[in-house]
Please model this.
Amino acid sequence: MKLFKPVSLILFILAMFLYTTGCAPEVGSEAWCKQMKAKHKGDW
Model:
């Protein structure tokens, strides 16, 4: 049971990482270009 907590924490962190990176549009796509146009040039 001591192994369950660290493993579940690692899986949770990995899932959050994949969730946040999976939501970004592909670089060079039309959605990405629109997103970049909406940002201020200093935020790039």
